[in-house]
Amino acid sequence: MPLNRPAPMSSILGSAARGLACFVLASASLQGFAEEAPFKEMKGVQITAALNGKYVTDGHHWGHHYLPDGRVMLQESGPDRPGRWSVQHDQFCLLKPQISKTEPICYTVQRQAGQLQYLDDAKRVVYQGAVRGRADARLFDSDGRR
Description:
- The chain is of the alpha+beta class.
- It is 23% helix and 35% strand.
- A hairpin with a 5-residue loop joins β8 (115-119) and β9.
- The radius of gyration is 26 Å and the shape is globular.
């Protein structure tokens, strides 16, 4: 019949050390997820690549469908509105006809993974959202124009 002896102290300390090491490694891994990379400013070609033919939204308050020909469907509070988008001097420019028919509003664009944010001249975030797939051209008239 085997005797029930307590484990030797070295065995207990070894288990505790391994457990502590696992805890420290797991904590370090989780901290890496919590510390996301900062938003980085994008240049003109990067902005075009990020928006061209894409749908960007915050998932609740606004969504923009950017077509490759420069048209955009603005889904913001109220009815959907057509507009125009372009990239000028490393800035994303948005022409909203309800605000101006000739002068676009231009923003600096920053990216963090799949998130984009548009900043005004005072460096305030005006829009922040995620690229959610392809733009839906069906939102435009039956002939594709609006």
